[in-house]
Amino acid sequence: MKTTIAEVHKHVGEEVTIGAWLANKRSSGKIAFLQLRDGTGFMQGVVVKAEVGEEKFQEAKSLTQESSLYVTGTIVEDTRSPLGFEMQVNDFELIHEAVDYPITPKNHGTEFLMDHRHLWLRSKKQHAVMKVRNEIIRATYEFFNEQGYVKVDPPILTGASAEGTTELFHTKYFDEDAYLSQSGQLYMEAAAMAFGKVFSFGPTFRAEKSKTRRHLIEFWMIEPEMAFMDHEDSLQVQEHYVSHVVQSVLKNCTIELAVLDRDTSQLEKISAPFPRITYDEAIQLVKEKGFDDVEWGDDFGAPHETAIAESFDKPVFITHWPAEIKAFYMKPDPKRPDVVLCADLIAPEGYGEIIGGSQRIDDMELMEQRYEENGLTGPAYEWYLQLRQYGSVPHSGFGLGLERTVAWIAGVEHVRETIPFPRLLNRLYP
Q: Domains in the chain, start-ordered, CATH in brackets?
């Protein structure tokens, strides 16, 4: 019977066959220990000379790293294994012998590993990070589907920018100018006016020449947009969504979190509601922590966000930012027009902003004023203005950066390890 490593718990005491690769091996006298992986997980196969014979045992000892094979044996419980099971190997068939696999069981430099990203993905830690990423995506679909959201796919090629063109990749669209999308938000607002509650999940691009551990050139965003919801409604959706994702990873990725040595006690604290502070209070807080050069109207950098996060054991919302440093479409606070009804969600443990969101301007005249102030002219923005012309309603939305969220939940320092094939300032290969 063929099965997978993820399913061996259903076959204790049974003889099964698994297609696998040899991640590593060691031998001790008359026993060989094969570290097997099949994509669904990692498991040890034990080859005993007395049971398989001299010839097969010597063949097992000569297997090379990353060779592929069919392994047949009996599944037994093993409390020492993270998986809880191992295979007593009866037989195996070599499919392909790998020769001189470059990523050996020793320390390699980051650039070497990034040059071999197509192979590095096979390693136990990288496999665990990608499984956490997959669980976050699965839990995202689960949350929004259960809440009655409709998934809508915005275009990647656009004729307009959501937040200015200075950090956009420009291309020619036949005889027109076009850009790679930095956000699907404007299109999601249109979708919300048709379906009420929507979300998108797709790649976005920022031509930002940054080399920090938090930045990628190409990354993935989850962007919900909600009609008839104000700023407060949106904050509640955000905190319940993030809580759901974290708890799903804790429940379904126990092996992966253990592989990553993640301190899960920090994640177990993550449940709605989240603390909230205003931008004014955040300015005061960072000043108290020694950042005397920060003034009202400044944006926060990574050190400031970390200082703020250290004061809380959950993600914290920073609300009511100065209008002058936020996007043109954000709704001003009716009680204080110099700030907007928005929030950034700062993750704990120094991982920085993972969500940015706001209530959107729904007033036609005010949006026309914002167009004029920001020089948004031409047909590329006309359709967006019409959303306020035909049945405008209060609406809000937000965007969650997947890779930063994976880095935080998995406890990985650099976002380059949270996406299968990262695109960095100096890296377009592989």
A: 5-96 (2.40.50.140), 117-417 (3.30.930.10)
| Global pTM exceeds 0.85 | yes
- Read off the pLDDT of residues 94-143 as tens digits, 9 standing for 90 and up: 999 999 999 999 999 999 999 999 999 999 999 999 999 999 999 999 99
Closest among 33, 17, 126 to 417, alpha carbons compared: 126
Other C-beta atoms lying within 10 Å of the C-beta of residue 30: 12
* Distances from the Cα of 85 to the Cα of 38, 70, 205, 219, 221, angstroms: 15, 18, 43, 37, 37
The residue assigned the tokens 């950034």 is 344
Closest CA to 357 of 197, 270, 269, 236: 236
- Given a contact cutoff of 8 angstroms between Cβ atoms, the answer to whether 19 and 40 are in contact is no
The closest of 320, 278, 335, 322 to 296, measured between CA atoms, is: 322
First to last CA, the chain: 37
Sign for the pseudo-dihedral over CA of 50, 54, 56, 58: positive
Radius of gyration of the CA atoms of the chain, in A:
26
- Nearest-CA neighbor of 334 among 355, 299, 363, 374? 363
What's the per-residue H, E or C state across 93-140?
Answer: EEEECCCCCCCCCCCCCHHHHHHCHHHHCCCHHHHHHHHHHHHHHHHH
Nearest to 56 by CA among 42, 44, 43, 72: 72
AA letter at 39:
G
pLDDT tens track for 294-345: 999 999 999 999 999 999 999 999 999 999 999 999 999 999 999 999 999 9
